[in-house]
Amino acid sequence: MERSYIVAVTSVLAALGAILPIAAAFYLSWSVATSREEARLTGLAEYAIKRADAAFGEATTALKTADGFAFAPCSQEHISAMRTLVVTTRSIEDIGYFENDQLKCTSWGKPETTIARQQVDFTTASGIGVAARVHPTISNGQTMLGFRYRSYSVLTDPARLVDVLISPDTRLAIANEAGILVSGLNNPDPALIKRLIAHPQTGADADGDDLFAKSNSSNWIAIATSSRASLLNDLGRERLLLLPLGAIVAALMVGLVFWLSRRRLSPLGELSIAVQRREFIVHYQPLIEMKTGICVGAEALVRWRRPDGSLVRPDTFIPLAEESGLIQAITDQVIDGVIRDLGPVLLADRSLHIAINLSAEDIKSGRVLPVIQDALASSGVLTEQIWLEATERGFMDVKSARATIEEARRLGHSVAIDDFGTGYSSLQYLQDLPLDALKIDKSFIDTVGLVSATSAVTPHIIDIAKSLNLYIVAEGIERQEQADYLLERGVHYGQGWLYSKALPAQEFIAFYNESKRVHGAGPAVIRRDFSMAPPAVGGD
Ligand SMILES: Nc1nc2c(ncn2[C@@H]2O[C@H](COP(=O)(O)O[C@H]3[C@@H](O)[C@H](n4cnc5c(=O)[nH]c(N)nc54)O[C@@H]3COP(=O)(O)O)[C@@H](O)[C@H]2O)c(=O)[nH]1
């Protein structure tokens, strides 16, 4: 469940990790190309407005100069002065003098036919009338721009207002603020220009397919446009740069996602997260006094409760936890769990004790003792009520093990050697270390009643423990026959499925209360006085 969830999340993240950087590269290249194109159009519009203002300024100056002429209208001097004005003013092609809206003379002389003055399309802010499309006979059919001031009109080639070089895919227009087009390059669409004048300064045309930029002066608006399609060239260059970058980031992200999920899915990754999430709980296997059947305590056995509620047995994760060093954090969670689960019961009943399994590292470093002290301090539970168990592996470094055991015993704990007989040096540890109890491994108890090589060992282990004045605990008692034998041989305590499997805290409390009801409470002091032999139970 959890695993398939992680696989699903990994797939989604990997897909996103692959798609997002590439999509971002596409978007970024489009956005960079668009910004660059907008900047180019803005520069163009700004330049064009300067050119338009310069040409219009020249035409205005010519008109106002002519308006100041004091010559007799259409006299030789007048015509000659107008001609000089045309020759010296770059942006006008001709100038005409009008009376009663009839052309009287131009820089060329007097017209041969009657020519009526063309109506203006609008008047600029500076008071110059503008006729956007004039077709004078002298222009040979070319549309001219007419500027008018009082009795004079000048003709200007509209191209003078957009006297700039642009690429064929760019269009340039000069219009007034009402959108009347007076000049353009590369055939700007008048309807589009009118629409764009209402738009913000630069950007994309919302209704069309164009990018545009505007620049204003007091008389004119210059608009430069280009189609989005013309961006594609630019885009190709940007993509060439950004797509490989996007692909590299995508590959890194996908790699990272897989690496993280592999770590998460690896047994060690799962265990580390379980430790962080404090997913460890404790079950309690009752410890029975063989002679009376009284439940005197329990062994705390850790369980890993997965988020889906399933319980994982310790054999599957304790070796990895010991190898990786996570065991210490797990031991701490077991200590917390014991106090949380059974603190009030231990406080109320001093005859009850709980045995906690310590790892080799806990024994070696001894750091677990202050942890237990801290946990006990706030609960009121006595140190004597917490037994400590460790396997031979914990005693391999005899010097540090001795220090930890001595300190533990000084504080009041009883210490037991667990799984006795399964290692190589069990006997030596018994001799060298000040232990309180010996737990005979289940493999020896299993042979009780059977004829086998190991079955002969069990009575010897019991005898050794007795000779060393140790409490003896038998593990894994499953049959009454085993219990009878062990009682007869003088084993003090037993645990096993004959009495109970390891139980969740509440069930253990119920088991303990029932045991007390049936058999009575155990002895109040459970710690062995090391100078005295443990009570004889039976046997020899
Ligand atoms: N360092 C720590 N080690 C721990 C801790 N909690 C448990 N352990 C060690 O994990 C090993 C497996 O423990 P578990 O699966 O809980 O099995 C225990 C009992 O349930 C089982 N048992 C007890 N009676 C019987 C029985 O009659 N039949 C049968 N088939 N199994 C039985 O034996 C295990 C108890 O073993 P022991 O500790 O040797 O008394 C085990 O090695 C645990 O020590 C922990 O918190 N820290």
TrEMBL record:
Residues 264-516 form the EAL domain. It is found in: Cell membrane. It comes from Ensifer oleiphilus. PROSITE patterns: EAL. Its EC number is 3.1.4.52. Gene3D superfamilies: EAL domain. The chain crosses the membrane at residues 6-30, 240-260. This is cyclic-guanylate-specific phosphodiesterase. The keyword Membrane applies. GO terms for molecular function: cyclic-guanylate-specific phosphodiesterase activity. The lineage of its organism: Bacteria, Pseudomonadati, Pseudomonadota, Alphaproteobacteria, Hyphomicrobiales. Pfam families: CSS-motif (PF12792), EAL (PF00563). Signal peptide: none annotated. The keyword Transmembrane applies. InterPro entries: CSS-motif_dom, Cyclic-di-GMP_PDE-like, EAL_dom, EAL_sf. SMART domains: EAL (SM00052). It is a multi-pass membrane protein. It comes from the Bacteria. One of its GO terms (cellular component) is plasma membrane.
